[in-house]
Amino acid sequence: MSMTAAILRRELSLRARHGGWAIGAGLFISLGTLAPLAIGNDGELLSSVGPGLLWIILGMSVFLGIEGLFEDDLTSGAMEQFVLSRSGLVVTILIKLAVAWLFLLLPLLIATPLLLIGYGSSLLGVLGLILASPGLVFTAGTVGAIASGQRRGAPLLVFCTLPLIIPALVFGPQTASGDIVPYLILAVYSLQAVAICPFLASAAIRLQLS
Q1: Which of 25, 129, 158, 161 is the most exposed place for a label (fewest CB within 10 A)?
Q2: Which of 92, 107, 7 is nearest to 58 (CA)?
Q3: Under a CB-based contact definition with an 8 Å cutoff, are residues 15 and 21 in contact?
Q4: What's the total number of domains in the chain?
Q5: What is the pLDDT of residue 1?
Q6: Lowest mean pLDDT among 29-43, 104-118, 123-137, 191-205
Q7: Which domain holds residue 86?
Q8: Which residues in 165-177 are b (16+ Cβ under 10 Å) and which e?
Q9: How do residues 132-179 score in pLDDT, each as one tens digit?
Q10: Cβ-contact 145, 82 below 8 angstroms
């Protein structure tokens, strides 16, 4: 088995046992279900504000689902081994972030259409979620790598990541209109995050180890 395949298998096992993804997905489902109780029975109001509210809840869910992604490896000494491995730290972090994204995405793909139907909104928002979610996870993961080992790292993660996910929060709700521009912007947002964030996270982890 190659080193990359071994790291992938390890990350799948760790994420399945860790449960952070379940907390994030649970928050998304519970808040998305309870939000109409606060908004009221006005169907027109619910369909107009519902998508934007879901995207804000999605951002919060990603924060919870990604928190502590690097902590265990830093404390156990595994991260030092990844630095010295043939695959390299950048590839390892890319795998860790991709697996975290996969575990978060699957339950959200099940819950989001049901919530959008309940809000009376367009199901096109599901496609927007698929396009934007890699950018959200990779961005939050990179800030998480910077905040690893810091006291009160979770609040730092939230406040540092919020400005970086504004494109998703602005253009995500607009996908309900069916216009192609928001989809293109979300796709570019995720592509640049996948291309850049593993290198930034790798540099942050190296600083932690130095």
Answers
A1: 158
A2: 107
A3: yes
A4: 1
A5: 52
A6: 29-43
A7: 3-209
A8: bebbbebbbbbbe
A9: 999 999 998 888 888 776 655 556 666 767 788 888 989 988 888 878
A10: no
Phi, psi of 100 (to 5 degrees): -60, -40
- 3-state SS of the chain is CCHHHHHHHHHHHHHHHHCHHHHHHHHHHHHHHHHHHHHCCCHHHHHHHHHHHHHHHHHHHHHHHHCCCCHHHHHHCHHHHHHHCCCCHHHHHHHHHHHHHHHHHHHHHHHHHHHHHHHCCCCCHHHHHHHHHHHHHHHHHHHHHHHCCCCCHHHHHHHHHHHHHHHHHHHCHHHHHCCHHHHHHHHHHHHHHHHHHHHHHHHHHHHHHC
CATH, residue 83: 1.20.1080
pLDDT 10s digits, 73-110? 777 777 888 877 777 888 889 999 999 999 888 888 88
Summarised one tens digit per residue, pLDDT across range 38-63 is: 777 777 777 778 788 888 888 888 88
Work out the number of other CB atoms within 10 angstroms of the CB of residue 149.
14
Round to whole Å and give the CA distance between 82 and 88: 6
- Biggest alpha carbon–alpha carbon distance for the chain: 58
Site of tokens 């919020």: 162
**72 pLDDT higher than 70:** yes
Average pLDDT estimate for 34-41: 77
CA distance 123 to 88: 40
Distance of alpha carbon 198 from alpha carbon 141, whole angstroms = 9
